[in-house]
Each structure stands twice: as C-alpha cells, then as structure tokens.
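Lay summary

Proteins are chains of building blocks that fold into shapes. Our project writes down both the chain and a compact code for its shape. Here are two examples, one after the other.
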Amino acid sequence: MMRRCRCCRRYVTSISIICLTLIFWHQNAEPSHASAGFFPIDSAQTSSGMNETDDDRDTRSIVTRLNEKYGRQWSFKILSHDIDENVAIVLGEITASGVTKQQFGTATLYHAEGKALKAASSTAFIKTAALFGIHTAKRQVDTPPIRESVPVPSPAPVKDPPAAPPETEQVIISPEQQVTNTVIAWSQAWSQQDADNYLSFYAPEFQTPSNVPRRDWETARRQRLSKSGFIEVMVSDMKVLPINSTMVYVRFTQSYRSDTLRSVVDKEFKFKQENDRWKIVRERVIR
C-alpha cells in the first residue's frame, strides 16, 4: 500500500511512515526487544548477520549501549523528514534522563525512498546518541602485512636551500560557520529594520508563503518592518546540516520582540550558495 507523505509530497511505503513516526519508549520493553525492534529489520535475515548493513549493526549497538547507560529511561523520535534534491533528510531527537538532544541525518536516494529515509533515520539516531557520549564500536580494519625493510644507502648531503619568506596565513571559514554568520546577520538586519539588507538574504527563487507573488511578499515585509517602533530578533540553538557543497539546512530557535508582539518559534532555513554568498531559498516555522 502506498501513502502520500505530507512533508516531502512524494509517495513512500507505509512501512517507511511507521519507521519515521516511531517513538521508542523503553518503559515496558526488555533491552533485547529494544535492540531488535528499533527499525523494521527482518530478524530471520539478521540473526546470522546476513543482509544486515553497517547501519543496522551500528543501530543495534547504540540501542544496547543506551539501555546499559539509561535503562528504560530514554526515547527516540523523528521530528521531521524530507526529500530534497535526491537526498533524504531526517531530524531525530533522543531524550534520556530528562536531557533532550537533536541531530540531522541524511542519505542519498540511490534506490527506494523508504530505504533512504530509513538510512537517514539511522544516521540521525547514531549522531544524536554521540551527543550523549554513546558511540558505535570501532570496526576492525585489516592491516596490511609489514614488509621487512631493505637497507638503502644514505644520499649525499645536500645544502639547505635558502629560507623562503614567511607566507601570510589565510583564515579559512567553513561553510557551516559561513551559514551561521549569515543567519546572525539576517537577524541583525531584521532587528535594525533595514528592509533592503533584510530582503537581500533571500534568493530570487525563494519559496514565498502560500506562493504569493514575490513583489507582494516583499511589500508586506517592508510594511511590517517599518510600522514597528522597535524590533529585536535573537537566534539560538543553531544546528547546521550541509547537504552538499552548495546546499545547507539550518534549524534554530528564533526569539522575536517588538512593541506589539513577542514570540519564540523554531525555524528551518534552506540555504543555497549563489556567487559566494549563502541565500535563503526556503523558510518555515517548525513550531
């Protein structure tokens, strides 16, 4: 049976929807059941290790380690999932002993969407568990045999070349830091009610709310910025997920305050790099 996914607007199998909406509580489950039931894996196939992927083994290992550390006082759930440019994107959340942490996971759509979403869910789960200090067991790597060294005659001494002038150290800013700086600058432009600067952060192909014409959306934003006596926008709890060299997702908490309104919401941006600058192509409120 096929079902239409509300977030990614594509068809995925029912088992994928079950996987993505799973909230795994351990109040009434034995650790062995927790390990076996986290993602839909055929126990007949995996009992002997056949057809079991590295993600499956890592997931089972993490569940076991979480059970050992927290007993039944932990849970995992999927907060959001999406398909964007042949990449499955999942945001997972683990709560353990009253502490909650989140992380993104991704997977490329080489085959069915359901498999990619499952793989992205596993990655999100493993990365979130790492924030609690829970890591997968290191996989053994075959070490090539050590060959006996053969004596080699020492080369004739060579005079040292003249020292080269010291090079100027270049500061390289990672894409994650660039995007983080962009979000902060965006919030500052909003706080300063600088409409031109604020709107410059949005790409020409930005998906406007309800697909209203871009000109109408910009006019409405300019009016909102100009009529407030003051605006203060703060961003926090930023999570950056690079999808590829030119696309990045960012999720953060936005605190807004003006003379007429106060609000705190979670937001998600999709950025694309255009002419060495990161531009917002999608903006949505999570809650």
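And here is the second example, written the same way.
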Amino acid sequence: MSGLQTFWSRNRTLVYTVSGLILGYSIAIGMSYLLFSIGQEKGRGNIQNFKIAQLIKDSKDEILNVIRDSKNSTSNEKSNDGTKQGIIAFYAISTRDLDLEFSQTVVFDQVYTNIGKGYNPKTGKFIAPFDGLYRFGSTGMSQSYHSVFLQMNKNGIEVARSTAAQNYNTADMEAILELKKGDIIEVTRRTNSNKQTERLHGNRLASFTGFLIATM
C-alpha cells in the first residue's frame, strides 16, 4: 500500500470532517459579510462586525479541536501494544511433554498474554523492552519416573531454582529482578543436574509468567 493510500485509510474521517468545517466556515463568512453589508445600511455595522469576528473564531476553534482529537486517537492506537503506556506482561504454558537435555531452555509454546511482545514463544526467552523492576514466575511438573531440576536465568546466570521429584510432583520458583533493556530471562534445565534426559510434564502443567512492576 502506498503512503498516500495509507494516509487516506487512516485519516479519511478527519479529511471529511475538516473539509465540511472549512466549507461551513466559508459559508459563515459569506453570510456574515452579507449581514454586515445590510447592517451598515441600517447603521448597525459595529454589531455585525462583531458577529463576523465571533463566527470566524468559533469556526477556527472547531477545526483545531477536530484535528487535536484525531491526533489523540491516533496516539492511543499506536499505544495498543502496551510499551508506550508502560505495560509489560506475559503468560505462556507448555502444551506438550518436553525431554530436556543438559542446560536446555524450556520453550513454553502457547501464549495467552504477551503485552509488549517481550516473550518469544519460539525461543522461550523474555527480552526486557526497557529498564525496570520485573517479577517472574515458573511452575513445572515431573512425570512418573523422571525428576525435574529447573532454574531461571538472567543473561545465562542462575537467579532461582526448583526441583520436582518423580511421580508428578511440582516445581515452582519466582524472582523479582532489576533489568536493563535487552536483558534475557529464561527457564532451563538445571546446569548442575545429572546428564540423563529429564522429562517435563506438559499438558498445560508448566508455565512461565512475568510482568513489569515499575520503570526505572
């Protein structure tokens, strides 16, 4: 779509409204001039002159208000991703069982909330869109013959850990972290656990969440 077509599709209502106001503005000036001419003949030129000035001012104010409202509406549409309003939040789950190798990142593939687009469901990693204080949490479940050892990393360094013994036990962890823009948070298999494959129970029983508490 060309730039002109894009502008037209986004601002069609504004163009119609401003055009109508300008037309009405022109008609008002013409009518006022006619009344002014008649008024002068009857000795009321000063009164009609005041009416012309008032009509011009009112029409100008109306056009400016329409333009201002349109800009505010466009600004709100651009803020729907949340980042310009300071809202960052995500919630994702794993829909399938995962056989985790040594230090493997857990990919939570189904996303329910991702305001700000900080979480990537293809990599399982959250990348901070700007500096701030964040809260993260994760839960998982073991299967019948597999214990699960998990950890949460900030830029590859462990900041929290959890363990779920075999036979469908749960592993939960959370962290409140000060992040810089571009910092990476992920959930992985524990780096110092044994090297045999560990199976994380999926079926919506493993989750990864996070949200911005405050900007800094």
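What can we say about the second shape? The two ends are 39 Å apart (CA to CA).
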